[in-house]
Amino acid sequence: MNFFVDTSVFIDCLRKETVPSSIAFLEKLGTDHSGYTSSITVAELSVGAHLSKVPEALEKTLELLNIVEVIDLDSKIAIDAGKIYADLVRRGKRIELNDCLIAATALSLGINRIVTRNVKHFVRISEVKALTPEEI
């Protein structure tokens, strides 16, 4: 089964107080499931690593990202994300543009399952199913 992994799940594994269910989920990727993420997630995690006081934060982040295949944005994904965002704005259910870019990237691969802690945002996008690591 293919899953698209949101930034929040990686953060669960990089924090000082890690979340065991997120670690267990990521450990299943490559054996039981295939995992993908967006270059947007890489950027978001990079911000945290560069702001961190932990000297090896960027190395740990890049090592964790090796578990999944990173999908780069292209103009089609960007246009699709813009449509998702505009539709949400029209319905009064606006979320962050980055979340729309992540969802559009997943959908570009035909993956509609996004594993996240940010379920309240992704459930607003009717084309995707937001799941927590505990639900996998």
Level-1 CATH class name:
Alpha Beta
Query: Largest sheet, described in full?
Result: 5 strands, parallel
**Radius of gyration from the CA trace?**
14 Å
What CATH calls the topology is: Rossmann fold
What is the SS-derived class?
Answer: alpha/beta
Indicate the percent of residues in helices: 40-55%
The share of residues in extended strands comes to: 5-15%
Per DSSP E runs of 2 or more residues, the count of β-strands stands at: 5
Query: What is the string of helix and strand elements?
Result: EHHEHHEHHEHE
Q: Biggest sheet: strands side by side, in what order?
A: 3-2-1-4-5
CATH second-level architecture: 3-Layer(aba) Sandwich
Compute the number of structural domains.
1
The residue ranges in which pLDDT falls below 50 over 5 or more consecutive positions are none
